Amino acid sequence: MAQQLSPVSGGRQDSAAPVDSAQSAPAPKCPWYAFATPTIGRAVRHASRLLHHGGSALPGKVVERIDPGFLARTLSSLPYGVVLVSGTNGKTTTTRMVASMLSDMGLRVFTNPTGSNFTRGVVSSLLTQVSTFGHLHADIAVLELDEAYAVHFVRQVRPRYALLLNVMRDQLDRFGEIDNTARLLAHVARATTGTVVLNREDPRIARLASEVQPGVQVRYFGLSQALRSYFPSDDDMHNTDMQAAEVQTAEAQAVAVQAAGAQPTGAGSSTATATATSSATYNPDCLNADVTLTHVGDHEATYRITDHDIATSVKLEGVYNLFNAAAAATVVRAVTTDTPQGVASDDDLIASLSRVTPAFGRGETISVNGTPVELLLVKNPMGFRLSLASFPPAGHDTMIIINDEYADGRDMSWLWDVDFTGLRGTGVAAVSGTRAWDMALRLEYDQVPVSHVDTDLEQAVADFVAADPTTPKRIYCTYTAMLRTRAKLSHITDVTDAGVGR
Q1: pLDDT score at 122
Q2: Residue 95 in contact with residue 142, Cβ under 8 Å?
Q3: Cβ distance 124 to 56 under 8 Å?
Q4: What is the CA radius of gyration of the chain?
Q5: How many CA atoms are closer than 13 Å to the CA of 207, on its beta-carbon side?
Q6: Residues 6+ positions from 419 with CB-CB distance below 8 Å
Q7: In sequence order, what are the residues at sequence separation of 6 or more whose Cβ sits closer than 8 angstroms to the Cβ of residue 298?
Q8: CA 496 to CA 359: how far, in whole Å?
Q9: How are beta strands 82-86 and 161-164 bridged, if at all?
Q10: Could you tell me if 448 and 424 are in contact, meaning their C-beta atoms sit under 8 angstroms apart?
Q11: Of 172, 179, 208, 481, which has fewest CB within 10 angstroms of its CB?
C-alpha cells in the first residue's frame, strides 16, 4: 500500500505544508469582475463543444483576454506549487505518469490531460476544476507546457519543480534551430524555485544545470550504457545520417575517380570521422542519476534507484515511454522528499508506475466493432523513428495522417529525416491529411507501397477502419490529425472524452 500524504484542506498552508511558495510574488489581485471568470469560461467551453469547435483551448483564450491574472491567481493557492514538464518528446505521457504517481502517493493533483499545452490550454483545464468562485481543490499542479509557451507561463507562475525531457529538431518554423529550443528551456530552469530534473543523456538538457538559481536542487535521470543505442540524442541521430551521407558520397567519388584512373581522396570519410569525434566529447556518466533505466523488454523494464534494481511490468506503449518513466519517477521522488512523510519508497514508486495507462493518442487503443485501432502521435523525426522501431508493422494495417496546422508545425521537411524502410514489407494501407501527397511521395522514395491516398481525413479514416475487420489497425498521426481522427472514431464507436470535443 502506498504511503498517504496528508492533503492540505481548503488550499491553505498549515504547519506541515511547505513554507516556500511556487510563486516569487503575491498572487495578482482580483479585478472586480473576477467572480464571473469561471462562469464565462465554462459558458464559452459549452458553446464551443456544441458547435463542434473542439473546446480545449478557446475558453482559455477568452479568459486570458478578459482576466489575465486568472492563471497565476488560481495556482498561487497550491501548497506544493507547480511541476512543469517540457521538452520536445514525451511531455503528455510523462505528465500523465507524474500526475498519476503523485495521486497514488496521496496528493490531490490538478493537471492538463488533453495535451493542449499552451497557457490557454492550462487555463481551459482550470475552468473544468475550479469552483464557481475560482477555488482549485488541489495540493499540487502537474502541467505539460509547450517549449515556447513554457516561457510565457514562467513569467506568470514560477514552478517549484521543472522536468526537462529532451531537445530535438521539431517545428522549425516555430522554434528555429535546435539550440534556440534549448534556450527556451533555459528560461524554465532559471525560473524554477525548488528542483530541476534533467535528462543527463541529452547534452543540451544536461547543460541547463548551469542556469538554475543558487539554492535550487538539480537531479538527473538516465540510461545504462547498454541502452544508449536505443535512445539516440538529436546529435547522435544527425551524426549518423551525416556519416551515412558522407560514406555514400565517398563511395560515389571513389567510383568516379577509379573510372578516371585516379586515386580516391578519402575526403568524405575524414569528414565523417571528424563528426563522430565531435559527438563523442560529452560523457553522461560523469553525472549521477537518481533513476536509471537499465533494461527494456516487451511491456517490462528495470530501473536502478539508489543502487537498487527494481523490475516491473508496464501498461505503457513504446520503448521511449520506458525512459520517460525514469524521468517521471525522478521528479516524483523530488516532490515527495518535500512532503512531511518524506520520499516515497522505491517499491511503491515503481508499483505506481506499473499502473499508468497510455495518454490519449499516445499508444491509445480504441475498439471499432471489435477491431483494435491504435493511435500513435508523431511530430518530429526522433518520435516517428522510435514509434516505428517500437511497433513492428507485421500483423497490422498501417495508416499515416499528416497535417500541417499551427499545432503540428507548418514545416513538414522533417519527414525526410525519418527512415520508413521498415514498412516496405507490409506497405501502408492509407495516407491522409493536408499533406497526404507529401507523405506518399516520401514513402515512395523509401520504396514503401501505398495502397490509397485521400486528403479527406474523415472519409479516409472511416474507410481504413472498415476494411478487413479481422486485422488490427495502427494510425500514425500528427497532433491535429489525431484530434480529428478521435473525433471521427467517436461517431463510429465509444471513445473516451478527453475534453477536446467531438
Answers
A1: 81
A2: yes
A3: yes
A4: 24
A5: 10
A6: 385, 388, 446
A7: none
A8: 11
A9: parallel
A10: yes
A11: 179
Cβ-based neighbour number of residue 91 at 10 Å? 25
Cell triple for residue 455? 486528403
Q: Is the dihedral of CA 460, 461, 467, 471 positive or negative?
A: positive
Q: Which three cell numbers stand for residue 345?
A: 519508497
pLDDT the model gives residue 239: 53
User: In the sheet where 453-454 sits, what is the strand order?
Assistant: 362-368, 371-377, 473-477, 397-401, 430-432, 453-454
Which residues face 372 on adjacent strands?
A: 367
The C-alpha angle with vertex 87 and arms to 84 and 92, in degrees rounded to 5, equals 70
C-alpha cell at 241: 545520417
For 460, phi then psi, to 5°, come to -65, -40
Beta strands, E only, 276-331: 291-297, 300-305, 308-313
Residue with grid cell 483564450, as numbered in its chain: 61
Q: pTM (2 decimals)?
A: 0.70
Helix (H) / strand (E) containing 71: helix 70-75
Dist CA 182 CA 66 (whole Å) = 32
- pLDDT for 421: 95
Reduced to 3 states, what is the DSSP secondary structure of residue 414? helix
Beta bridge partners of 33: none
Q: What is the mean pLDDT of each run of 10 residues along the chain (502 residues)?
A: 40 36 50 59 64 60 69 88 92 91 92 69 78 84 90 93 86 60 94 97 95 97 91 62 43 38 37 37 90 92 92 86 94 90 82 83 82 90 84 94 87 91 96 97 97 97 94 94 92 70 38
